[in-house]
Predict the 3D structure of the following.
Amino acid sequence: MEALRYSGPMSKYTIHCAFPSSVLTPVFFEEQKIKPELTKQIEGSTGPVEKLYKKVPSPEAVVRQIIKGVERGDFGIADDSMDSSLLYATALGTSPKRGFGVFDTVVGIFANLIIWPLYRCYFDWLTKRDNIWRNKEKRN
């Protein structure tokens, strides 16, 4: 809304927020070395490096995706994954929705009522399992 104050016949200002997930950079691989296994499981970054190269986008791919989002006029630009779409749709608040807003509204309602409670149970299970595993290690 603040940008609207300065837009007029001579210029149009817009604001876009990009929310990329993991990106294949040297920092990503350094972080993988110290990242807890539980976090890797939750974000889906477990497995050999070859698998990560196929799953995690390159910086160039992320930039292309952001540019497409800006060209479409999207306020919020999330990656193409279902997880990111669900997170974005449920965290919009009063932010502008993508397109006509129908997709984000429907996905947000569906995700809040069905998907996130299931994910939450799964994440809780992973966390409890990780805690049990750590306690066993300490005893040995």
Q: What stands out?
A: The mean pLDDT is 83.
